[in-house]
């Protein structure tokens, strides 16, 4: 069981906000009833997990759901990435230390690793479940065929742990999971933990056509944030987002709350992963939980965004964690 809104700390803890502000955001999440927290070993090279672990220290562990991920590079060595047994085991142990916990509730394969046999990956994850270090496993940004292959391996090997979650990028604009991935997950009982529901903050309406990004926004921040936000900024899009504001107001919601409520309204979505740099943003995001929007609102959103909506399943992330110059041992290949 997860809260409808999950607090995520990508691009925030260890990068955009200092530790005190990060702790304040986590406290605001707890105060707002958020019980699920999402992070990854790669976020700020482990610093995000450290900050989250410190912020949650002292909380009743059984009341929390802590999710982390493994696959993307955490160092410069050949085994500091991917989904090999070695990296999964070592990364999990490091995450447990940083998070100050004995177990991770949900451990997700951050990307698919074509250099490692799928059987090796899934058995390694199953071993962590058997050892009690992980309770459930999931995937993030895998294609439908990759998920189907994993499900077949789990059945064929009779593994104890099954895939319970998929963490895709999903919002009003980016709907590439709808043709293939979402139907597959519905059939298999896999819940969606949708990230970037606000499209890097663009769907909040704070970025206005012809104006500089506002102070305090990701578009004006340091580090990697502006590059990510820049991918979705464009005058035509910004103008249409402004047209969404009265739709949100008619629902008694802010634009951010409408965007989150829209994702939660979609079939198979269990939770929306939303980050924040200020406690008030956390409270606003959490308030979208339980808000109902009807079919007429959904139709209006589609009408406004029109041809800017992307449903191409071929765009599911294919970024590989393991570079081709790294070779596996002969025994592993066999």
UniProtKB/TrEMBL annotation:
UniProt domain NADP-dependent oxidoreductase: residue ranges: 5-304
Keywords: NADP, Oxidoreductase
Family annotation (PANTHER family): HYPERKINETIC, ISOFORM M
Species of provenance: Planobispora siamensis
InterPro entries: AKR, K_chnl_volt-dep_bsu_KCNAB-rel, NAD(P)_OxRdtase_dom_sf, NADP_OxRdtase_dom
Keyword NADP among UniProt keywords: yes
Molecular function as annotated in GO: oxidoreductase activity
The keyword NADP is annotated on this UniProt entry: yes
Family membership: Belongs to the shaker potassium channel beta subunit family.
Protein name: Aldo/keto reductase
